[in-house]
């Protein structure tokens, strides 16, 4: 279509095929109803009519509790929040000590390194002065000293005596930490809606917060949690976890609906363990760190080293808020309209199955699908006198049309044959003695009837036969149906009753073109859709010899092709 400004004012729409069928109509509305129900359920369930925003939050935690432990060679120690909280664990996390290994009265000095971190030696030559690595407790002095009754190790400058215990004590020394409580304060905001809230809800009073404690079944909104309950909710045992420590995740989920009377925005808590708990399945199980308490004894600095094991609690906040938006509703409705094409696809498939007869399927296909050939690939149809079907071939610029292989074959559909016979019956002798047509000299190689003329164009190199034999122009019917002047004049008058058939070049051209149409209707009939019928060379030149042009020029075209439009407007009688 050429690009013009007027094309902007044009409107195009789709062509529809309407099938009058109660069964198909009922099936269509049933499917459409099911699809509509599915769309409505999904819209309400997923709140697709809402605009959404994601949470921005901050978290603080305050742990409370006191524990008393009795440590060997140390005595009773009271642990309060300062002692068992440990160093800062970063954003949204807190730590609670549950077990310790104590090495008391360490002083700066020289002592044998502890295996396996220290090198077992025999003489001083086995030790390197000033050597250390990432596993050493100090720097080697170069001396080999006695470690125990059977072994010697390299001496190091370090805090002595060196920590020797590897495994934490069982049961955990601070197992009573499971009764500690933590107050988690979570403030959230949804920027797009300018909505703020915290997990300490407006209806909670000071007296309520002093006595409440989180319980999944009885008080699921309380922001104060017992550590033992947190670990239990994560499906873990606090006493076992307290030995080596670990990491517990506290998940706070905000799923908020900000629509009018349906407004609802409450936190939901869940808990899970985040680290690998099996000691035999990981190289470094649990969680621990070291800290020391320093004192001076007789002017000498000493320290008590604590290797603390404990549980780190990571608070993770997730959330999404939704509010009605007409734009989101329109977008959702528009995106789901495509689901209705499933009805068309299913019914089209059903019609194409054995549920319908072959005739019904073919009739529906012809009404629904209109095939259009690409004009860059010209499709031709040819007919041979020694075959009972029509060949459909592609136009070739190199190979002779006689030798081109067909892409499909179709039965010959002769139109108005009874009317033709009625006209022929006006004569006394329908079939006379065959006319004498002499073979032409210089017969080309592709000619099998002996009556074709040479041509340099591949699309003109077409004979009336596929095997050697008699030419169709020698047939009595060719003379009667194609060349007979009375018949051609009757056809012209049938088409145009008031046409002037006076002698002259115009009358000869009309008879010649009518003869072309007569041949096409006789040998090909109605050509397959979008294909152009082609006449054999012998027939074309025989017609032109009978009705020649005075100037030697023929307007039907040099390719012996009669267009589909000419065929459709011609009437054979």
TrEMBL record:
Gene3D superfamilies (UniProt xref): atp-gated p2x4 ion channel, atp-gated p2x4 ion channel domain
One cellular component term from this protein's GO annotations in UniProt: postsynapse
Protein's cellular compartments: Cell membrane; Membrane
Keyword entries, A-Z: Cell membrane, Disulfide bond, Glycoprotein, Ion channel, Ion transport, Ligand-gated ion channel, Membrane, Receptor, Transmembrane, Transmembrane helix, Transport
One Pfam family linked to the record: P2RX7_C
Keyword Glycoprotein: yes
Listed GO biological process terms: calcium ion transmembrane transport; response to ATP
Membrane topology: Multi-pass membrane protein
PANTHER family registered for this protein in UniProt: P2X PURINOCEPTOR, P2X PURINOCEPTOR 7
Role description: Receptor for ATP that acts as a ligand-gated ion channel.
Family: Belongs to the P2X receptor family.
Protein name: P2X purinoceptor
Organism: Oncorhynchus mykiss
């Amino acid at each position: 279509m050429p690009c013009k400004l007027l094309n902007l004012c044009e409107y195009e729409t789709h062509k529809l095929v309407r099938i009058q069928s109660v069964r198909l109509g009922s099936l269509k509305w049933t499917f459409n109803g099911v699809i509509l129900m599915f769309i409505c359920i999904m819209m309400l369930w997923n709140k697709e009519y809402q605009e959404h925003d994601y949470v921005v939050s901050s978290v603080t935690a305050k742990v409370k509790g006191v524990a008393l432990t009795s440590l060997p060679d140390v005595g009773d120690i009271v642990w309060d929040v300062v002692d068992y909280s440990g160093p800062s664990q970063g954003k949204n996390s807190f730590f609670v000590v549950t077990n310790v290994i104590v090495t008391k009265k360490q002083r700066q000095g020289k002592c044998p390194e502890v295996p396996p971190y220290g090198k077992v030696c025999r003489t001083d030559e086995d030790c390197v002065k000033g050597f250390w690595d990432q596993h050493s407790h100090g720097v080697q002095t170069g001396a080999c000293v006695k470690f125990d009754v059977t072994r010697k190790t390299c001496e190091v400058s370090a805090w002595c005596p060196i920590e020797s215990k590897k495994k934490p004590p069982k049961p955990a020394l601070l197992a009573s930490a499971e009764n500690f409580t933590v107050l988690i304060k979570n403030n959230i905001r949804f920027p797009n809606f300018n909505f703020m809230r915290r997990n300490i809800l407006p209806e909670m009073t000071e007296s309520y917060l002093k006595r409440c404690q989180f319980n999944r079944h009885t008080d699921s909104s309380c922001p104060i949690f017992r550590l033992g309950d947190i670990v239990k909710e994560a499906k873990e045992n606090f006493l076992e976890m307290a030995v080596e420590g670990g990491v517990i995740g506290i998940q706070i989920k905000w799923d908020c609906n900000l629509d009018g009377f349906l407004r609802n925005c409450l936190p939901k808590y869940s808990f899970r363990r985040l680290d690998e708990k099996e000691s035999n399945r990981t190289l470094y199980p649990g969680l621990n760190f070291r800290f020391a308490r320093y004192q001076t004894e007789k002017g000498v600095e000493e320290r008590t080293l604590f290797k603390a094991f404990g549980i780190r609690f990571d608070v993770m906040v997730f959330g999404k808020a939704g509010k009605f938006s007409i734009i989101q509703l329109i977008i959702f409705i528009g995106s789901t309209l495509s689901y209705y094409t499933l009805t068309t696809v299913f019914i089209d498939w059903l019609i194409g199955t054995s549920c319908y007869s072959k005739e019904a399927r073919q009739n529906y296909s012809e009404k629904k699908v209109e095939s259009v050939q690409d004009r860059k690939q010209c499709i031709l149809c040819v007919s041979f006198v020694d075959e009972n079907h029509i060949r459909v071939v592609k136009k070739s610029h190199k190979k002779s049309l006689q030798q081109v292989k067909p892409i499909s074959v179709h039965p010959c559909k002769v139109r108005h044959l009874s009317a033709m016979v009625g006209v022929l019956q006006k004569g006394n002798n329908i079939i006379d003695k065959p006319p004498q047509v002499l073979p032409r000299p210089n017969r080309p190689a592709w000619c099998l009837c002996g009556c074709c003329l040479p041509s340099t164009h591949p699309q003109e190199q077409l004979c009336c036969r596929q095997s050697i034999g008699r030419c169709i122009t020698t047939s009595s019917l060719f003379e009667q149906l194609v060349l007979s002047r009375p018949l051609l004049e009757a056809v012209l008058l049938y088409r145009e009753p008031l046409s002037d058939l006076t002698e002259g070049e115009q009358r000869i051209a009309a008879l010649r073109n009518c003869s072309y149409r007569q041949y096409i209707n006789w040998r090909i009939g109605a050509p397959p859709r979008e294909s152009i019928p082609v006449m054999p060379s012998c027939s074309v030149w025989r017609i032109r010899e009978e009705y020649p042009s005075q100037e030697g020029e023929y307007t039907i075209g040099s390719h012996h092709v009669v267009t589909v439009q000419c065929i459709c407007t011609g009437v054979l009688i």
